[in-house]
Amino acid sequence: MANPATGPAAEAPAGRKRQLRVAHLTDIHVQPELEAARGLEACFAHVQAPGESVPDGPPDLVITGGDTVMDAMDADEARTRLQWDLWRRAKADHCSLDVRSVMGNHDVWGWGKSKARTTGDEPLYGKRFACEQFGRALPYESFDRGGWHIVLLDSTFPHAESYIGRLDDGQFDWLTRDLDAVPATTPVLIVSHIPILSVFPLAAATAREEPGGRPTFQVSGQLVHTDHARIQDLFVKHPNVKACISGHLHVVEQVDYAGVRYLCNGAVSAGWWRGQHRGTDFGYSVVDLFDDGTVEARYVPYGWTARG
Hints:
This protein is of the alpha/beta class. It has one domain (about 20-300): Metallo-dependent phosphatases (Purple Acid Phosphatase, chain A, domain 2), CATH 3.60.21.10. It contains seven helices and 15 strands. It has helices spanning about 35-50, 75-95, 115, 130-135, 170-180, 200-205, 230-235; strands at about 20-25, 60-65, 100, 140-145, 150, 155-160, 160-165, 190, 205-210, 215, 240-245, 250-255, 260-265, 285-290, 295-300. A six-stranded mixed β-sheet has the order 4-5-8-11-13-12, covered by helices on one side. Strands 3-2-1-14-15 form a five-stranded mixed β-sheet, with no helix packed on it. Strands 6-7 form a two-stranded antiparallel ribbon. Residues about 1-10 have low confidence and may be disordered.
């Protein structure tokens, strides 16, 4: 079910208590053009301003949901460094909250070798560039905060000179071990860049005909996890996985399926800083995590308009 509604974060009904408030800033796509760095600064200011993002308290944590920079996949090293420098300065100068980051397809350097003029032998080729910016060795991690276990996945893998959405076997095995180690009473939030499950790819698909003329739809493996069935089978074994949040699609969407809430949370950059995208404004999501394992989210426009 799509849920484009915006507004204040949900008030906790009697009997449950909010344990953690997360500001999910996804698809920032910072770049020197279109005043994108100023837009990011404005978003950080809105997140932290009393009474701006929500009336009943600021976020405890910021999670950026991937595609931090406009594009590194097809960019040379100088252009890639320029974009990451903009990100680092904005975060250092304008955000006092703890920031954890997910990797997106546009954060990966040089997979488009013909355009990026990379060979694959560069020290920071591929995901190593973004890992250095995020200050960690691996493109995925997990941690505990506010009574919840939070998993940041890496959902982008190479295909030709582009990508598809999935986990490789090594990361899937890591995720299995990670979830096995979490007490059954501890709720889990999964964060990925590409949605694990989404309605939007079907809404965006083009109808075609199978042999014999029967209409069908083809969904792109760049828009949703191609291994969603394997991941959902894993979730069945871990009913404490309560929600999966993502970005990538630049739309706001909510899907409740098999006991898990899947939330696609818009884009800080809206339509890549040029205006709204499919009715989605420049914004971020406030995600509230409660002690009973429930999750509520509201999309919050931060007042930016396209420039340039």
